[in-house]
Amino acid sequence: MGDKVALPSLSLPKQKIHWSVGVVIAAGVMLLILVAAFYAVLQRQQAREEAYAKRQADHAAALKAETEKAKAEAERAVAEAKMKEAEAAASAAAAAQKKAGTVGAAEDSAAKDKAGKKKGNHKGGGTKVAGKSGAPTTTSSSSPSAPTPAKSSNTKASKDIDDLLRSFK
Fold it and tell me: 0.85 cut: is pTM over it?
């Protein structure tokens, strides 16, 4: 082991790489450049699609919010209209009842006055006249006042039914 061994040198003068190896290396570099460009294009396209999807979602959310707001306003308007109709029906019913009560009281008082005048003018001899005037008076005083509340209750019931049917539309 005392002798030194000379190793051959790996760099040989005037030895170049073959041209086909250079072409393969150049093709590899070009392929890497194309892959990088394609990846960049795909990333940009995906970013555009995500931005578009986000804009569409925001727009859809805005439309949905606007629709819900309009629906809430419409429901509130319908509720207010129903309340106004109910108040109008109640005031109309109260006015009709007041009118019916006033008319019924006026008819009752008029019938009593008429009966009182006929009885006061009668001088004891005519029981037929008193019987005739007494019976129609009680019948006439109860007849106009009895149908009037029945008509007003039928009218009120029909109004309530009409309001209920209108609310379904």
Answer: no
